[in-house]
Amino acid sequence: MNSNHYKHLIPATITNVSRRGFLKGVGAGALVLAVAPSVGRAADAPKYGGEGMDNGIRDDAKLFVAIGEDGTVTVTNIRAEMGQGVRTGIAIVIADELEADMARMKVVQAVGNEVKYGNQDTDGSRSTRQHFTVWRHVGASARTMLEQAAAAQWNVPVSEVRASNHEVIHKSGKKLGYGALAKAASALPVPDKGGVKLKNPSQFRYIGTGKVKLIDGMDITTGKAVYGQDVQMPGMLFAVIARAPVL
């Protein structure tokens, strides 16, 4: 049978429009290390997975990593914690590629703002699966910028320095901590993805080792963690369903 006979059965194109309102995001600090976001065009080929979801995936370290002058690395988690350990997962992956000390990692929760952060749906076991490579590139880019900043300060080739456990070390033995380098690193141009070297999995210090405990495990098990049902706003009302007394 000619396929034209079935044309009336083909539905019109469906456009998914997000129902979420957009909240104004919190501005980033001065010591944030950034990676340029991926920009899509209407003429691009269809996207699948995370890129095919409303607002896609942001590949932008400005949204994920900030380093303070005291060396604290603050990671912003854009997905909800539902017991899957995503808050710990993002810290582990970024810290491994960043060559950071896990003891100096801090995780903060992003507000709901998909224009800024990309898709924030938390369902289908997708959070880490879709962001794993993104987080690795973010950590590796930040590490590269710190190494470049140290090389510039010492006036040596970047090939003579390497990042290790929250410091950048010159082959002569000189060292600089991440906190001391963060401001200079943030002023450098961000390396292209192709110019960023990811670790060989055999070099992982945290990923897949099972040695890192849940960052908020103690708060969860002792009742200190704040869940959606715990939040109270000024003037907030509580609703219950009025059920019929009989079926």
Please tell me about this protein's structure.
The protein is of the alpha+beta class and 247 residues long. Helix content is 24%, strand content 10%. The chain has helices spanning 86-98, 114-117, 127-154, 178-186, 217-221, and strands spanning 65-67, 73-77, 105-109, 161-164, 167-170, 175-177. The strands form 2 sheets. The protein has a 3-stranded mixed β-sheet. A 3-stranded antiparallel β-sheet has the order 4-5-6. β4 (161-164) and β5 form a beta hairpin. α1 runs parallel beside α3 and α3 (127-154) packs across α4 (178-186). The chain is elongated and about 80 Å long.
Which overall shape is indicated by the principal axes computed on the Cα atoms?
elongated
Strand order of the largest sheet: 1-2-3
Helix/strand-derived category reads alpha+beta
Count every beta strand, where a strand is a DSSP E run of 2 or more residues: 6
Number of helical segments with 4 or more residues: 5
Uncertain segments of ≥5 residues (pLDDT<50)?
5-30, 34-41
Instruction: State the end-to-end distance.
Output: 51 Å
Helix content: 10-25%
Beta percentage is: 5-15%
Largest sheet, strands/sense/barrel? 3 strands, mixed
The pLDDT mean sits at 81
Based on CA atoms alone, the radius of gyration comes out at 22 Å
N-to-C series of helices and strands:
EEHEHHEEEHH
